Amino acid sequence: MATAAADKAARTEPGEAAPPAASAAHTAEQQAAFDAAVAADERIEPRDWMPDAYRASLVRQIAQHAHSEIIGMQPEANWITRAPSLRRKAILMAKVQDEAGHGLYLYSAAETLGTGRDELLDKLHSGRQKYSSIFNYPTLTWADVGAIGWLVDGAAITNQVPLCRCSYGPYARAMVRVCKEESFHQRQGYESLLALSRGTQAQHEMAQDAVNRWWWPSLMMFGPPDDESSHSEQSMTWKIKRHSNDELRQRFVDICVPQAESLGLTLPDPDLVWNEARGHYDFGPIDWTEFWDVLKGNGPCNEQRITQRRRAHEEGAWVRDAAAAYAAKHAPGSTTRPDTAAQHGEATA
Ligand code: BYC
């Protein structure tokens, strides 16, 4: 928030800790400053006053996004040991590591809102917070890695580029870097699928089969239709979201159709046709029953994904303990710090 008046009314004092939650006793002046900042397309920063509901909705969306990034590592990591060449293996390992990095930026963004990483991971592991529906589908063949890059990362970019203009500063800034990396991911997926599509008959069929399976779940990534989207209207008023779910879904379809033609692959929708009057492609009905079912935990891989995530967290406990011990050892005033020990004439080896 840059406006002088808004600054005065809404910022906490320098040096003061960011409030864990906005007080119910906020003044109308603070609300007005917040509304003015959002209307003026200014960024809301962690130390600015913000409505409780805005904070909660951001935590909900950012947490879901962060969880998606780290759960999203699983389906692709499934193919690291079986990548068809050293080059493909190196690329895939880099991509999966990028997803871990995205998760970290996003958990950090949520932390600026006063919500700790432990709390968010606990909510993921106990099923109280969601992750993207898309990662509950299996990666059956090598071509699925290409299809995920092209379609899943493509859908992610379409959704996330507008989030670079999200009203909350830390989330918007995290998205800038994430989108650059997702853009590389999308291209590698496209290039990998192109190689398969132009390969042997069996490779072409494998690529087509992967696209057949990933197309509809990719369209579901954008969320329910606008008339069933509970958060869109408020999120758009707050400029967390800049476009509705259906708008972004349509944008994605329009981008994909010519790309599929260049790939020599067919999108599995007989109703896909250019509509001159709308200036967009029409497409067939999405199976929303399947979407809600996956959200309820009944997708093909929900159980496997969350079990693996819990196991990874438990097996990583020693790393967290070691990091915490190291941080404590190097904290100012620690009697076990090497430099402190040296001052006392103790061995520091
Ligand atoms: N999956 O009111 P709505 C990635 C939930 S992965 C699961 O429209 P909103 C990547 C929604 O949370 C992509 N749940 O919600 C990683 C809400 O439930 P709650 C991750 C979904 O928030 C690795 C309810 O349905 N991207 O990038 O206005 C490799 C009603 O929905 C889904 C993000 O998370 C879904 N698909 O809009 C490759 C982007 N859709 O919370 C790629 C940031 C909806 O009330 N998030 N729900 O229990 C967003 O932009 C928005 O949160 C959404 C949903 C567009 C997803």
Automatic annotation (TrEMBL):
| Membrane-spanning residues | none
What InterPro entries does its record include?
Answer: Aromatic_CoA_ox/epox (IPR052703), Ferritin-like (IPR012347), Ferritin-like_SF (IPR009078), PaaA (IPR011881), PaaA_PaaC (IPR007814)
Q: Which SUPFAM superfamilies match?
A: Ferritin-like
**Renumbered residue ranges of the record's region Disordered:** 1-28, 326-349
Q: Could you tell me which Pfam families the record lists for this protein?
A: PaaA_PaaC
Q: Low complexity composition bias: which ranges?
A: 15-28
Report the domain of life of the source organism.
Bacteria
Q: What is this protein called?
A: 1,2-phenylacetyl-CoA epoxidase subunit PaaA
Native organism: Streptomyces huasconensis
Point out the gene that encodes the protein.
paaA
